[in-house]
């Protein structure tokens, strides 16, 4: 996904109907906002719980624009969480990857989720400082104006514009290269799963780009590679070695739309045990992100499942 300043008008405040619960009405938007900012399903759900408590602690009749109020609340809660998370991640065991999220195949039609961002882009977002990330998400993903974002963050619009420009330049310099079209990606995914299921080393290596790199996030909870793996031979042998381990007995590989892109999930029974997302360049898999931390698989369900929504309050 290429982000750019489209110049489109900002979302207009929606009139409030007495019979509508604004929090329930905008739940998907609020979850999508928090998830884009944090890269964590669990943290996004926690933010929504806190926002719900704050919403029910105010005089709602006095809130002129509930949607803007709720987005501002979620934004500031997420900004606080991002700031504290940076210190925590410095002691994280092995590579840190965002939490994958199964999304519906028609995610492009879910405007309030703003085309759930790819895992690769969430990784790029991690290189922004907390304020840059929040501004980028609000401006480039959800289309808020500089003035609106300034109101959310208590900053002048001119300052927000500068932060946005800096963040956009940073993201554009690091964003993933062009992806394969849907048909090509589907073919690559099927061949990848077939090679893994059959233990076919040569077939798997043919699918991997010469500069392929794999990151594996186990969080110190399950066995995982604690450093990135490089090169087709190393990556392919490691993947097939994982599939051959006793702990992988009964694992079922399925294709699924993860963060808006066709990917692979590993299931044992009804339980997800891994989510593998990747970039495709020139017909080969170039970067692989393999999430196996069980605490980060809450947003993954069986292939074809719906996007994760926060639990009812």
Automatic annotation (TrEMBL):
Interacts transiently with the RNA polymerase catalytic core formed by RpoA, RpoB, RpoC and RpoZ (2 alpha, 1 beta, 1 beta' and 1 omega subunit) to form the RNA polymerase holoenzyme that can initiate transcription. GO terms for molecular function: DNA binding; sigma factor activity. GO terms for biological process: DNA-templated transcription initiation. CDD domains: Sigma70_r4 (cd06171). Residues 1-23 are annotated as: Disordered. Belongs to the sigma-70 factor family. ECF subfamily. Keywords: Sigma factor, Transcription, Transcription regulation. Residues 14-23 have a biased composition (Basic and acidic residues). Residues 124-170 form the RNA polymerase sigma factor 70 region 4 type domain. Residues 24-86 form the RNA polymerase sigma-70 region domain. InterPro entries: ECF_Sigma-70_Domain, NTF2-like_dom_sf, RNA_pol_sigma-70_dom, RNA_pol_sigma-70_ECF, RNA_pol_sigma70_r2, RNA_pol_sigma70_r4_t2, RNA_pol_sigma_r2, RNA_pol_sigma_r3/r4-like. This is RNA polymerase sigma-70 factor (ECF subfamily). Residues 190-266 form the SnoaL-like domain. Pfam families: Sigma70_r2, Sigma70_r4_2, SnoaL_2. The keyword Transcription regulation applies.
């Amino acid at each position: 996904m290429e982000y750019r300043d489209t110049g489109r008008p900002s979302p207009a405040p929606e009139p409030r109907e007495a019979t509508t619960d604004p929090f329930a009405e905008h739940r998907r938007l609020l979850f999508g906002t928090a998830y884009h900012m944090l890269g964590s399903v669990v943290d996004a759900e926690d933010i929504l719980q806190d926002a719900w408590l704050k919403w029910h602690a105010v005089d709602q009749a006095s809130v002129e624009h509930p949607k803007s109020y709720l987005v501002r609340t979620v934004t500031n809660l997420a900004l606080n969480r991002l700031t504290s998370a940076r210190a925590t991640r410095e002691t994280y065991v092995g590579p840190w990857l965002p939490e994958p999220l199964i999304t519906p195949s028609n995610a492009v039609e879910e405007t309030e989720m703003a085309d759930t961002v790819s895992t690769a882009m969430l990784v790029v977002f991690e290189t922004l400082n907390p304020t840059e990330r929040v501004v980028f998400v609000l401006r480039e993903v959800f289309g808020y104006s500089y003035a609106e974002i300034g109101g959310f963050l208590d900053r002048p619009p001119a300052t927000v514009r500068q932060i946005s420009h800096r963040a956009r330049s940073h993201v554009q310099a690091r964003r993933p290269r062009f992806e394969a079209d849907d048909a090509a990606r589907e073919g690559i995914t099927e061949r990848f799963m077939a090679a893994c299921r059959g233990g076919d080393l040569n077939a798997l290596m043919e699918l991997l780009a010469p500069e392929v790199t794999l990151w594996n996030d186990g969080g110190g909870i399950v066995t995982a590679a604690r450093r990135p793996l490089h090169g087709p031979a190393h990556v392919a042998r490691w993947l097939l070695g994982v599939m051959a381990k006793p702990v992988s007995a009964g694992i079922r590989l399925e294709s699924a739309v993860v963060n808006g892109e066709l990917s692979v999930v590993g299931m044992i029974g009804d339980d997800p045990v891994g989510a593998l997302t990747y970039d495709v360049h020139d017909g080969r898999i170039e970067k692989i992100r393999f999430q196996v931390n069980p605490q980060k698989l809450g947003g993954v369900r069986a292939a074809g499942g719906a996007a994760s929504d926060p639990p009812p309050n």
